Amino acid sequence: MTRSLEDLMLRFDLEDASGVSLRPNYNTAPGQQIAVVHVEPGGRVLSMMRWGLIPSWAKDPAVGFRMINARSETAAEKPSFRSAFRRRRCIIPADGFYEWHKTTSGAKQPYLIGSQDQPLMALAGLWETWEDPESGDDVDSATILTTAANEFMSRIHDRMPVILPDAASEQRWLDPDSDPRALGDLLAQYPGSRLRMHAVSTDVNSTRNNRAELVEPIAAGSGGLFDGGGL
Question: pTM value?
């Protein structure tokens, strides 16, 4: 996610983003702070939250590292996510996301996937507040919902993020008055015809690397699906 605060304010019609400081992040890792759009009584706001949802009842915040994603098929019922699904739905802005494909040589080739017509995508998410029992501090955290891969994505992985396709979907997802039982249609696959993909450097395998060159297309490794450039 490399966009400016001004870009996000305009794209998501935000009322408030006070206290938020953004810098380009080309290789976001679990446990890091991410920008999250959610609704407060005054309207849509932007907050920085830890990536990896920590349920309010968790004993150890490390559980969040196992909850960077939530399966959309079960999130409404699963104890870790059901309360957030009912009351704390959010959007996680992203330029794109990485996925890895095992080549015929056995190596894993990373790809960057983005939208062809939404330069700044809206990933459906959930957020939660956990109170640190030692310090008493509140920790806000978020997870990204996933669904079965569409035909485009299934060439490299069997899952993909839930990408909200338009402004009306974003509004329904964020609206605290939306009936959670009626939101199933929003958890569908994003059309493959609207996605693009290209191979990127294996340097993204290390979170120590975080630079603009990471998103540049390269020729795929031996046995890779594509020969660079992207689709």
Answer: 0.93
